Amino acid sequence: MQTLRNIDELRTWRAAHAQRTVAVVPTMGALHAGHLSLIERARSEADVVVVTVFVNPIQFDDAEDLESYPQTLDDDIIACSQAGVDAIFVPPRAEMYPNGYCTFTEVVGPLSSTLCGASRPGHFRGVTTVVLKLFNLVQPQVAVFGEKDLQQALIIQRMLSDLHVPVRLVVAPTIRDIDGLPLSSRNVRLGEEGRLKALALPRGLDKANRAFADGETTSIKLVEIVYEELLVHPGVEVDYADVVQLHNFADVTEAKAGDLLAVAVFIDGVRLIDHILLGGPALAVVPEAD
Ligand code: PAF
Known about the structure:
Layout: E1 2-4, H1 7-16, E2 22-27, H2 33-43, E3 48-53, H3 63-67, H4 73-82, E4 87-89, H5 93-96, H6 110-113, H7 116-119, H8 123-138, E5 142-146, H9 150-162, E6 168-172, H10 192-198, H11 200-213, H12 219-231, E7 236-244, E8 260-267, E9 270-277
Parallel strand pairs: 1-4, 2-3, 2-5, 3-4, 5-6
Antiparallel strand pairs: 7-8, 8-9
Helix pairs in contact: 8-9, 11-12
The structure holds pantoate.
Pantoate is lined by residues 26-28, 56, 59, 127, 130-131, 149, 152.
């Protein structure tokens, strides 16, 4: 595996692989089994795989969140090498955003302004900007993203389509720990207690989904079920819980199968997101301890 530490090195590597199809897995590092599943998927989609590791400052709306974002580059390099990655691209911040940088890419409308977009102003603009820059640099045929960040994946799909970017987007399923919590680089910031509280997230979604299967279709009631599960735990703050249509993120009052129930919470200051497609398969969640 080659470690490419600047844009020149990436361009030289890409030119040497001009005849091969490339799949890219964009990440912010702190790689875990969820990322490894994206890498495995990427390996099945193209001749060679590039993982990008770049903590993108312009997608953070909170300086403290950026500062405390976990960084484990040495471990990430080992993990990528063991996972059969061909190149890891780790660009310096000053090359991605040199002095005077002032160009941004933004998908406007409800896809970007609801859910995480409503509570993290500018976040998706930062994501689409860096993803387009990374695609311009890596020139992949395929890009693999996780379904865990479903809103992000849908926004990127929209950008690719609207801007005629010739990259095929693959959305790979969310990987959950055995207790039901979706894998996230932020999970390492939860203490033991915080982690137990975090399980209320998949548990609440699963309860709401079961209620939906039993005939409850009122969005507010489904959202209430999630709130009830979350708010019994001190230190849990709900950022949003909402039911929206999957294709346009419009709010719904009466939920239908395939609608998205999405939740974001702060647990002891750590922001976590999770979602379920109503009427979809149950989540394997651990019951709450007595
Ligand atoms: O999902 C992430 O890790 C980031 O948002 C991404 C896509 C790598 C852009 O910085």
